[in-house]
Design goal:
CATH superfamily of the largest domain: Vaccinia Virus protein VP39
Protein name: Chemotaxis protein methyltransferase CheR
Radius of gyration: 20 Å
Structural class: alpha/beta
Number of domains: 2
Number of strands: 10
Helix content: 40-55%
Largest sheet: 7 strands, mixed
Keywords: Methyltransferase, Transferase
Low-confidence stretches: none
Oligomer: single chain
CATH topology of the largest domain: Rossmann fold
Number of helices: 10
Mean pLDDT: 92
CATH class of the largest domain: Alpha Beta
EC number: 2.1.1.80
Shape: globular
InterPro entries: Bact_Chemotaxis_MeTrfase, CheR_C, CheR_MeTrfase, CheR_N, SAM-dependent_MTases_sf
Domain CheR-type methyltransferase: 1-276
Length: 276
């Protein structure tokens, strides 16, 4: 690409980032640049725009375009019992610690379409803790949240969940947590009623609530170091005394400048306890 054309694209990208931040309050300017650029270009293509500049009047003036844009700018990639070794560690190392809390409030930040929230609820149920637990599952992507709230999943998603569940050490019947609905499955009410889905922007919004566990996996990798520090500070402020934090296996507290605030419970699975 000629240097002049690349510079014009850079200007268009910066203007779009500024427009969505100033017009709607969603600040993507501290996301990892290469990653967010790819998503903006994908948004332009999905919106039928030949350039990023053509997105500007739409994000500034078009009703309903923000929801469409956010659905492309976030990354709703997830599955039930994703990373079975981490789920095994949560069952063995985290849930026994949560049992000591009178009320088990969990914040799942970046819940996407809800598979991980359902996973956490199943783990709590199998350990006899679900009745005194509440999972607050948040995301910036309203399209993903709508799907999560429906509790509906395809047969393929559930079948893949069974494989992960068994690899994570599950000994129950995974499908007993679902009921058949059309060609797919719907999460049963005892699971759904323990999950509260809500719109929340990790960048612009404040502390969500006080919790004893924060789960935020594979989200920080899309942020630059400055934003990682800001977000992890919110997690620190949200965690109760002795609270726990679970990050993605490619994420670290060192890069977020917060290693001194936590003690590793399982370093490989990125499970940490807040230092008091």
């Amino acid at each position: 690409m000629p240097l002049k054309e690349a510079r014009v694209m850079e200007i268009e990208f910066d203007l779009f980032m500024q427009a969505i931040a100033l017009r709607h309050g969603y600040d993507f300017r501290h996301y990892a640049k290469a990653s967010i650029k790819r998503r903006v270009l994908a948004l332009a293509q999905a919106a039928g725009c030949s350039t990023v500049a053509e997105l500007l009047p739409r994000i500034l003036h078009e009703d309903g375009f923000l929801k469409f844009a956010l659905s492309h700018l976030s990354v709703p990639v997830t599955e039930m019992f994703r990373d079975p070794q981490v789920m095994k560690a949560l069952r063995a190392e985290v849930l026994p610690r949560l049992a000591s809390f009178p009320r088990i409030n969990i914040w799942l930040a970046g819940c996407a379409t809800g598979e991980e929230a359902v996973t956490l609820a199943i783990l709590l149920k199998e350990e006899g803790l679900l009745h005194r637990a509440q999972i607050y599952a948040t995301d910036i992507n309203d399209v993903a949240l709508d799907k999560a709230e429906s509790g509906m999943y395809s047969e393929e998603v559930v079948e893949h969940g069974i494989r992960n569940y068994m690899l994570s050490g599950g000994t129950g019947t995974f499908k007993s947590n679902f009921e058949r609905s059309g060609t797919g499955y719907r999460v049963k009410p005892d699971i759904r009623e323990k999950i509260a889905y809500a719109h929340h922007d990790l960048v612009g919004d404040g502390v969500f609530c006080e919790v004893c566990l924060v789960v935020c996996r594979n989200v920080l990798i899309y942020f630059d170091h400055e934003l990682q520090k800001r977000v992890v500070t919110r997690f620190i402020d949200s965690l109760a005394r002795g609270g726990l934090l679970c990050l993605g296996t490619r994420e670290s507290l060192q890069s977020a400048g917060a290693a001194d605030y936590f003690k590793a419970i399982d370093a490989d699975c990125r499970i940490f306890k807040k230092m008091n």
